[in-house]
Specification:
7-stranded mixed sheet, binds D-malate, two-stranded antiparallel ribbon, alpha/beta, about 200 residues
């Protein structure tokens, strides 16, 4: 997969996932803010929706092609494992952060594969699969940022996601904002405070 890699100085790797229409460059500055010492591995989604990069196909806005999501989630996890080996990062702690479609593919991986990331930061995510989460998330800590007036992600849907992740044992912190789908500095700063406290 097309990706960006920045070597870090600490035994931690942040895997970053952009939103619809983004690239592997988009979240690099946010990754730097969250943890300037971590290795950064930022991926570009391989689905092309009218020229916009995504991590999985959708039928309509907020309606996902779940078979495609499952197939891509598996492929992305394999790719992450390959890249960790390639860059000699197998022994680092593995964290993830994503915005919108990027947060949704992380949520999909958590539903399908359980404890794959020790910490995940999900900006404006929604429920990725109707079948629900199946595996244990006992060793997973998650920050969710949600907009109360998000026109793309209904607030109730993010609340449902939070509940489903918690039910599998994840330790979830959810913050809500009087705003829409846009990612703000306040939200990134809250994620950093949450992350730094751990
Ligand atoms: C998705 O397709 O993942 C969600 O609708 C959010 C987005 O528009 O990317």
């Amino acid at each position: 997969m097309i990706h960006y890699y920045r070597k870090g100085t600490a035994p931690r790797t942040f895997v970053l996932f952009h939103g619809t229409g983004g690239t592997e460059e988009d979240l690099v500055s946010i990754g730097n803010m969250l943890d300037p010492e971590a290795h950064i591995l930022s991926l570009r989604g391989e689905v092309n929706e009218n020229g916009m990069n995504r991590f999985f196909k959708r039928v309509a806005e907020g309606v996902f092609d779940e078979e495609d999501l499952k197939m891509r989630a598996e492929r992305i996890l394999q790719e992450i494992e390959r890249l960790l080996t390639h860059y000699g990062l197998e022994e680092t702690a593995l964290y993830s952060a994503g915005y919108s479609n990027g947060a949704n593919i992380i949520a999909g991986m958590l539903y399908l594969f359980g404890d794959v990331f020790q910490k995940s930061i999900l900006f404006h995510p929604m429920v990725p699969l109707k079948s629900g989460a199946a595996l244990s998330l006992d060793s997973t800590e998650i920050f969710i940022g949600a907009g109360l007036n998000d026109p793309i992600v209904p607030y109730d849907n993010t609340t449902q996601l939070m509940q489903e992740l918690s039910r599998q044992g994840a330790f979830v912190t959810m913050k809500t904002y009087e705003m829409g789908h846009r990612l703000t500095l306040e939200e990134v700063e809250d994620a950093k405070a949450w992350y730094s406290a751990r």
